[in-house]
Amino acid sequence: MEGNKGHEKKMKVLCLHGFRTSGSFLQKQISKWDPSFLSNFDMVFPDGIFPAGGKSDIEGIFPPPYFEWFQYNPDFTEYTNLDKCISYLCDYMTSNGPFDGLLGFSQGATLSALLLGYQAQGKVLKEHPPIKLLVSISGSKFRDPSICEVAYKDPIKVKSVHFIGAKDWLRVPSEELATAFDNPLIIRHPQGHTVPRLDEAAVQQLRNWAMTLLPISVPENGHVNQNGVDEIAESKQEGAATESNSTKTESTSSAETSVADSGHCKENVKAKAVEAKKDEPGERKNTDPDSSMETKAINEEENRA
Hints:
Elements: E1 11-16, H1 23-30, H2 35-38, E2 41-44, E3 50-51, E4 67-68, E5 71-72, E6 79-80, H3 82-96, E7 101-105, H4 107-120, E8 133-137, H5 145-151, E9 159-165, H6 171-178, E10 185-189, H7 200-211, H8 226-245, E11 251-253, H9 266-279, H10 291-299
Parallel strand pairs: 1-2, 1-7, 7-8, 8-9, 9-10
Antiparallel strand pairs: 3-4, 5-6, 10-11
């Protein structure tokens, strides 16, 4: 499957960076991912509302300035400027949206999940259309009971995918955050507190997940583009085979979307599937000269989150 082919438009996603980094740094991290997935989305990478109040762990690795969304105590139970941050983001989304989804890393993922929980309870973004998706990388829940009782009161019914690293010091909090969502997709990776490089199985998981969200194009004659439907069915079948054969990336999904298989244009669809298969990346080699330094820095990022 090639990018956004067969779809009406790209889905707009607001991407929130980690503590004392920047929107441009998160954009660099996300650029590791397969273009065939990223091309489905219009991704926006704003900077945090506050300048970094201390040393950034990516100094010497990525140029300043650095930002943070809010501040917190060592136990992550008390927060400073959180309300101001939420108000800023709600205004930003209303003025620059509407947005279809949120993506966040660490502090940005924690904040994204909070916004979704608050919107579901009618606390924020009342004039903004319901957010449809979340991509959480090393996220966690807030720990203040007054926040938890509202944001995580009910399962958040938003399509969500959660990246959880085996060596991430936020692995357990990330697991807990996933339980706040209805039928989350969990993609595990062997790395630490970082935006992971994805193997072929994880890329296929993301493609299948995206296909349950992206709208099918409708021509002027009002008939749904059946090739698009068939591509989704074919992609899901390939994904199931990849999951059963792969031992590199353990992933679980309790949200499966059934798509009817059409008998039309089978040869055409198979040809597309074969062609797309040739373009799928295998295990990627680490060719980024900053990668090892970046991983080391990110693994030490946000001493508390």
